[in-house]
Amino acid sequence: MTKRDRRKLSQIITRGRRLTVAQVTDLMTHMVSTQIIQQEIHKLEEHSRIAPRRPYLRPQDFQRCLAFAQAHRHWTINDWAWVIWTDETAFELGKKVD
């Protein structure tokens, strides 16, 4: 494979993270075997990864959310539009929330 082919391969696998090796092979401009594509992907250090799971909310978190909602019962719909709810944000593992 040429340098140009490697750049093309890098573009394809960056844009199409869920593509199989066979699909990537079909998208290449030159006829290349799937085995060579696999080897080149490995050389580019691109490996399949599994997304980390988001942690579940603890009972204390539910209590704080409920207390906040009860304390702000008088708010209008426009006031509530500015609140970020737990189902609208991502949580990361290993980070402490203050």
TrEMBL record:
Domain of life of the organism encoding this protein: Eukaryota
Gene3D superfamilies per UniProt: Ribonuclease H-like superfamily/Ribonuclease H
Molecular-function annotations in GO: nucleic acid binding
InterPro entries (alphabetical): RNaseH_sf
Protein name per the record: Transposase Tc1-like domain-containing protein
Organism, scientific name: Austropuccinia psidii MF-1
Lineage, top ranks: Eukaryota, Fungi, Dikarya, Basidiomycota, Pucciniomycotina
